[in-house]
Amino acid sequence: MRIGIVGTGRIGSFHAAALSRHPQAGSLVLADADPARAARVADRLGATAAPAVDQVFTWGVDAVVVACATAGHPELVVRAVRAGLPVFCEKPVAPDLAGTLAVLREVESVGGTLQVGFMRRFDAGYATARELVRSGALGRLHTVRTMTADPAPPPPGYLPTSGGLFRDCLVHDFDMVRWVTGQEAVRVYAAGSDAGPAQFREAGDVDTGAAVLTLTDGTLVTCTGSRCNGAGYDVRMELAGDLDQVSAGLDDRTPIASTEPHGPPPASKPWTGFLERFGPAYEAELSAFVRLVRGEGPNPCDGREALAALRIAEACEISRRERREVALDTVPGGPAEPAARGPGG
């Protein structure tokens, strides 16, 4: 198998390294807007560097991994499926909801295969939480709390094209809410604060946000996020039922300290970022993509699954901006769209 990778920045080079170690991935062809960067990564991994993206599609690859800047995702995904190539795309599929819908319609019209990168689906803690909820071990689920907190803001130049806190960051939490609980959000109310660094106000974004989601079965969900969590990278999900409650993401590296006299000690080595925290999950999702390409496994996160999480993020952004509750059935791309499916298979 020969896999083409477009984009060799932080996440692209991480994916390339993971696939270079995979026993069934075969050879790699790497391309980047900066050919010199692609050449450096290829040299380090023993892969082939292409002089331009075009060669990824003309040098006989069997699948494509899209890990470049978001603006390039739609064209590359469509180009891959039109060429009959399975494609793995880092989220988001497109910079906005309309663009995402356009790409998915094209994928479906040609019968293409698209897997979207929501790596938390491959994290052991989240997978166990899903099993406990689905088995009924927690009883009737009544409350879910999620949080995603980055240790430091991203570069100012990233913010204007990021889509904002809800679409870029908390969209992972929204995907986990659906995947773990098996329920859909029916309405949301969200708020945000831009009281932190000026770069957020200048970009029309917020550095901290919170959303309340009501699910189809009445479960209440709170999702909070921040770009300014100096203690470290903190990603958690708490699920409370009338029989028991559990937490995913709570371990000896979670950057939170107890104020109780006999509470657990602070983490001596808190998580520093998403690649460190979710490294094994990233590798597992790429292994799933290899199996998908080989016809040996199902698609663990197709475009419609990614769309469902994005629609929640979109509703949250509307709610934050207009200071009102938003019903999900007013956001385009809902279940009435062709080929829509339920949460998480």
From TrEMBL:
Keywords: Oxidoreductase. InterPro entries: Gfo/Idh/MocA-like_OxRdtase_N, GFO_IDH_MocA-like_dom, NAD(P)-bd_dom_sf. Residues 1-118 form the Gfo/Idh/MocA-like oxidoreductase N-terminal domain. Pfam families: GFO_IDH_MocA, GFO_IDH_MocA_C3. It comes from the Bacteria. Residues 252-272 are annotated as: Disordered. Residues 126-242 form the GFO/IDH/MocA-like oxidoreductase domain. Belongs to the Gfo/Idh/MocA family. This is Gfo/Idh/MocA family oxidoreductase. The lineage of its organism: Bacteria, Bacillati, Actinomycetota, Actinomycetes, Kitasatosporales.
